[in-house]
Amino acid sequence: MPLHLSDSDILAELEATAEANLNDHLAKAKTWHPHDYVPWDEGRNFAAMGGIDWDPEQSNLSEVAKAAMITNLLTEDNLPSYHRELADTFGLDNAWGTWVGRWTAEENRHGIVMRDYLVVTRAVDPVALEAARMAHMTAGIAKPEKGSQFLRGVAYVTFQELATRISHRNTGALCADPIADRMLARIAADENLHMIFYRKLCSAALDLTPDAAVSAIADVVLRFQMPGLNQPNFRRNAVLLAKHGVYDLRQHLDVVLKPVLRTWQIFERSDFGSEGERARDQLHAYLADLEVKAARFEEQRDRSLARAAARA
After folding, report:
1. pTM of this structure
2. Rounded distance, CA 45 to CA 41, Å?
């Protein structure tokens, strides 16, 4: 088999794997309804309907929890961009197309339920939220820059779905509201099943074309950015959320990168050629550097929090 396969060849070779994983996903996925996770009796009209418009005092969430909820929701809102990317990568034929549709339908529930919760409970400014949604969806997301779109795509979404799951779960705890916690735990369960689907696909791609796959994985890991990068205030909010443990370098390293790479046996495999070995060396060096950065960030965060506590 050639060292590098075209994306169309990879899709053909892995179609049976995609179908088997799709069937496994459908057997494990649980049906749930967004309306069952929203406290509708807290809702009331806004000024356009004869009620009162939003005021910051109406929110029961902390500033950090609001930033986390908004960041997570705007990320979910950009679903049309993700759908286009996935449809371009997988195509819409056979099991690939069925997965694209099913994944999109499942993901759409996340934005529905989160927005309903935030608007009904008046947790955030709905006008500012809508303006941010418009800006973020207009910006969209960037396409992969080089190499196999398929290999880069499945590697990226494996890490991204897991990172999103962690962010949702930690945001739920941060909200100090059992309703929000239950809602975000339900969303996180979806994200986990999606991650497993993509992780299995990437594992099969590693067996099919090892060097090209690990090179794509290394490129994704070294350049990884969360999909919400283009949303308003993302960088400021990302620093705030990292400072408060929603998603930080330590979690990215220890809970996302290392477990996935371990599942793929990246550092144990013996089927890489020279290209794959170079990519593996890059990954090893990057993880070591990230360990240093994560430790440094934790030290700085601890000092900052200690100073804030002393002032309080």
Report:
1. 0.94
2. 12
